[in-house]
Amino acid sequence: MDKAKMGTFIKEQRMALGMTQQQLAEQLHITNKAISRWETGNAYPDISLLDDLAAALSVSVEELCRGERIALPSADTNTLLSDVIAEVRQQKKDRAAKWLRILCLSIFSVILLAFLFFTGAFLFIQNEANLDEALFTLALGAFAIGLMLFRDGIPILLLAIALPPLLCRRPRQPAKTIVCILLSVLSVLWLIFGGHFLWFQLF
């Protein structure tokens, strides 16, 4: 199975039907960027979209996977579909590996920042004559950093979790959509009003 050939076939069929990428994307409830990635041969369509994509382009699933028109269904259709499933699974593994790299980089950044903070704290204490004042200053600094993370970090993290499913135009479960909307609204409210509330309570 050729990714570039399949992408070219999708583009040719779409143009033959007089559809734009946006119109095809709306039929499939996805973004036009996904269509562009398919047509340029950078990605395969998700296995769950093959039936709908084939119907939208007025071709069979086998023709879609082969990237060409065929007169009669071949005997190795199951093998072809197995190849498609394997490719899609590999794409999911690649995406998972990408997120794992991002997570590792984030953890490394946090560890590096913590190391720099404690190294700076140690040097600060070493150079201060009054140990109590130095410790109090460091405690205030650590408290300020923790307060910033609590005020801004938590809602930003919740937004990062809730927004991608809402922005994705694939069909979603109603319960999941409601939860994501609630998380997004609460996160925005927390970002707007949470800091003022904490400031009022503390001071």
Automatic annotation (TrEMBL):
Annotated SMART domains: HTH_XRE
Keywords (A to Z) from UniProt: DNA-binding, Membrane, Transmembrane, Transmembrane helix
InterPro entries: Cro/C1-type_HTH, Lambda_DNA-bd_dom_sf, MFS_trans_sf
Segments passing through the bilayer: 99-125, 137-166, 178-200
PROSITE patterns for this protein: HTH_CROC1 (PS50943)
One term of GO molecular function: DNA binding
Domain of life: Bacteria
Domain HTH cro/C1-type span(s) in chain numbering: 10-64
Protein name: Helix-turn-helix domain-containing protein
